[in-house]
Request: fold
Amino acid sequence: MATRAAPRPRSRPELRVVRGGGKRRMSAVPIIAIAIATVFGVTGIRAAQGQDGLKAAALEQQYANEQENHILLRAQVAELSSPGRIADEADKLGLVPAANPVFLRLPEPSNTPPPIP
Amino acid sequence: MTRVSARRATTLAIALLLAMSGIGLRLGYVQGIRSDAYAAEARAQRVRKIVLPARRGTIFDRNGDELAVSIPARTIYANPKAIKDPAKVAGELAPLLHTDAYSVEQILRRPSPFVYVARRIGVVTAAQIEKLKEPGIGVLDEPRRLYPGGGLAANVLGFIGTDYHGLSGIEYGYDQLLNGTPGWRVLEEDPSGNRIPAGEFREQPPVPGADIKLTLDPDLQLVAERSLAAAVKKTHAKGGMIVALDPRTGEIVAMANNPSFDPNQIGNIDPATIHNRVVTDAYEPGSINKVITASAALAGGIIKPDQKMWIPAGVHIGDAYFPEDRVPDESLDLKGILTNSSNVGTILLAEKVGASTLDDYFKRFGYGQSTGLGFPGESPGILPSAGRWPTSLPTMAIGQGLSVTALQIAQVYSTIADDGVSVEPRLVSGWVDRGGVSHNASDARSHRVIPENIAREVRDILRNVVEVGTGINAIVPGYDVAGKTGTARKTVEGKGYQGYYSSFVGMLPARAPQLVMAVVLDDAYPIEGGLSAAPVFAEVASQAVRILRIPPQPAGVPAP
Reply:
């Protein structure tokens, strides 16, 4: 009886040593990138906020100045339109009060002709 | 390691430990025990609280134009201790402040940490001073009161003091209403004084004062003031007053005083000129008071309008003799008595009316009491009892021995103008409160003083006074005017009678008066009210009818 030849051992890839545990380590690069982005982002936002704050302060100041200017101009108008000044200016121009003002008496409502469209 | 090295290392470690312990202890002290105090100190360096001044309310005339308004202004202050070279700083400030450098330098050399250099200057000048960036010089917001009309109605408006509170007139009387509540702002600043944008910021806005609307007509006020000033000059009077009001509403449309002042120049005000004499000064009215005696006589049925009575050359009452200097030995009716301003006729009527009744009429017409105007310093006048002395009744009947204000006497004629109803006079027609809500002043209180028919009869008599009597110079062409002249002896404190008050009180149109005006001149020449005060009435009234749109007497319509 013929004997069966012993099976040839299968060729296996060479075993290699796997270092470390089973978990994969995350790369530090994205973390650093995120951190840098966060720092720059926050700084940028703060800078923009500061810039807007400065703009707001400037606008507030401008508003206050314009308001002051408005009050001063109104006071100037009041001074220029005061009856004393107008009378003095009229005097300088040689104007005199009207001697005989005429009062117009309108007819009674019942006698008023209807308005012409 | 050698033994030496080991020893050195130990020593160094101990030294480091001690140093670290010291630092740690200090850190604990600063950050722990004293943390609040240091935090507060640091905050105080950054955070500043600014007081935001409240706008004082505006005073408007009846047309809604400004008579008194608050405008932005700045105050320049200094910390002399922080100024190294006062002469140099003064040299820079003086031209901007339009003053001399020496006086500014004197201020900057004062031994005080805070001095005012200039108060309430213009914002442009203040900005120029700020640009100098001189250490020790600062700028504050301090609004300024501006009276756009200058001296227009100055005695009515009054003025305010450096603390921005009213000192006289409407400014004083309505100070609480006009004054606002200051606000504040808390903010963080860097060492250069720039606001830190994301820093602390809190604000309580100021609440502005209420705005007040007066009943004064600015055009008529100007006419009254200028005519009065011209009359004072022409008659060499010491001063004068005019008050004009609408008898139907009690609204005072003009209130002029002479001498007067400019409230924009309070540093140069003569204290004698600031009073609103129309309400503060009481004087003996003289013959214009005779309308009360006439009203009492008519209302009491003592005399009928057409009933004549004999006017002797004079009357003895008590130990006094009252001569008749106008119409002796003549029969006159009431119209004749008033038209000729007969003293004896009026005294004889008063005797018949009686002291008690005349007293009652004086009080009903408002003598001896405030008019209800509520003006600061208003005088109630002096009203002694007509029965106090034997001569009290006759003298008071002709307007001596008692004192009234020009407003009170205008009020008497306003009552006659309004058919016997006395309407309380008023100067304020409304206000806008701090919340911006408008309020109208409540309707003026009124009460009947004399019956309507009596008032009309007295008015008719007063029309005659202007038409043919002593008030002929008060005629306004095209209008029927009713009024009465007065020439009263003037009492000077401690000197007895010295000088005269010349006056005229009139109304128009006499049939339905829309305007009552009293003109009083102090020590005018000629002394007679008919010659000095009545022309002023005519001049002002002829302008008033245009300003107030009072139409003339229609042709053919009889007078009352």
